[in-house]
Amino acid sequence: MAWTTALKLVALLLAGQDVAAQVPANKGSDFLRFACSQLVIERADPLVNPGMAPTPHMHQIVGGDSFNITMDPETIDPPKTSKCTSCKMVEDFSNYWTASIYFQSPENGTFKRIPQMANGRLNGTAMEQEGGITVYYMRPFSGTNKKTTVFKPGFRMLTGDPTYRTKQSGALVNCHRCLAANERVMGGNGAPCDANDTPYFPNKPCPGGIRVTVIFPSCWDGKSLDSPDHKSHVAYQSGGNLAGDKCPSTHPVRIPQVMYEVMYDTSQFADPKYYKNGKQPLVYSFGDPTGYGAHGDYLFGWEGDSLQRAMDSLNTNCWSEYCPELKLQSWEAANSCTKSQMAKEDIGTDTWLTELPGGAKVA
């Protein structure tokens, strides 16, 4: 199928290329893209394990510093209760989190956390966040109706499942891209979760790192801010992972499609000796050695109507970080927005651990 102009721009941005010359004057595109620095790495998950500290496995969390173990929508309004955000967009106090990845030594079975790294270059400027992720908010890439309705306060969702150990049916929505050494700075070419990506961990060394992509649903039932499984109130459009302009009748409201890119720095663990006889040494923090259990969590927290204004202006002059409807903060300000672990423990960044945090078994 032919690439649309918008999807070509997605590929350019994913490759970190300068899109300023690619977008005609006064013409927008179909997404916002910005980076968020690392807020905290800890075992906390207010969606799946509300009130529990610590939870069973480790996550990297970014966004507003009001993040806590409950995120009770009755008492916590992120734009009002947060004092800062680790995201470049000042009005975005949402929280975004994904599972950590660990290297398991083939020699003695000990674990060391794979650090996150900055994601490519945007218009020639290094995205100098500390760890963190890159966030996309996308409108339909095909069809004539581009209108999206942004989330309501209290909205949350997740995608993927940590229990998966085999490929699921349908288009890929969580995937891994193995980067060569010369792709480390630019982050690799190609659209998200295409033929260059795998639902499983790469079975070869990745000296330039691994880019993990997490794609959320683009359709909403229009009623529920959450659901018992944190999935049923939203849906993917059938036929692909990137949104078109039609939603199923059960979920008729088109919402901005959220997508994460997480860059894991595997350069120090890229020795070919770790990749023999079909084996590879990486494991997700919940004990998954396959990679199929990749997942992501999202909790909405934009201030006022800022996100709606931005999505509505995508057909005029907004693309990526370049959106006059939104305010940007400096990298120094984003990087300085951090918080302490609620349950303090060694996460295995500088030390070798005899077991995964929380004691998850590799299986």
TrEMBL record:
Organism, scientific name: Rhypophila decipiens
Pfam families membership: DUF1996 (PF09362)
Domain DUF1996: 45-302
The keyword Signal is annotated on this UniProt entry: yes
Stated name of the protein: DUF1996 domain-containing protein
Keyword flag Signal: yes
Keywords (A to Z) from UniProt: Signal
Source organism superkingdom: Eukaryota
Secretion signal, residue range per the UniProt entry: 1-21
Record field: transmembrane: none
